[in-house]
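We modelled the chain as a single entity of 259 amino acids. Its sequence is:
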Amino acid sequence: MRLPPRSELEAIAVRAGAIALGHFGHARPERKADRTLVTAADREVEAALVAELGRLLPDATIIGEEGAVRAGRGPYRLALDPVDGTAAFVAGLPTWCVCIGVLERDRPVAGVVHAPALRETYSASDGGAFLNGEPLPPLGAGPGGGDRFGDRFILAHARAHARHHLSYPGKVRSLGSTAYHVALVARGMAEAALVAQPRIWDLAAPGAVLEAVGGRYEYLGGGLVDLDELADGRRGRDYVLAGSPEAIAALRPLVGRRA
């Protein structure tokens, strides 16, 4: 079984994003057992993704945030987040994404992070990363580095102010979507991201983009994140840092834990 072209994965994400846009601005949220939000958009988009990707990669294992599970016999695992950033979606903020991650064992080998309300599509396959079809440069390789976007900043989860002592000298921003945070790191806009204990569908799609530009995931307490350990949908064992190895090393001592 071969991976489909990046363009096909992008097209599926765009169609799914159109479904979500039909709900955007008037979604009615519910609380799941873990107290996070879910809407009809999450469920409809996941069903559409499973149907299309199931036909495209019939032997792949599938796991989705809203309960989709399909055992496969091929080498690939699909990790789906139909609306990453549901709270932002419900609040009317545009920083939510449709995420398709393709893993080969523990490694993200292809992915799409599509932000419909922003008209941004980040994708990766065959070792390359792209934004709206244009190649993304390796981290640190762009003209002027991160300074070309203005003030230095990192991205952090919404409860970072309550759970960490942050002594980072630049700005700290939270936009409501783990996938979008990681995508902005891969784009070179943010220096790094601090992610709350994530699940595989939070990390797989943006991880493919991040890895393609020379970035990676590490646990705050140390050690690389093994996505294979999260294959059953469990949370990561610690907070996660996303960025280049150098950026992660610089940020780690600046992120303490509150008692």
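As a brief sanity check on the tokenised model: The chain has a mean pLDDT of 93. The first strand starts at residue 30 and ends at 31.
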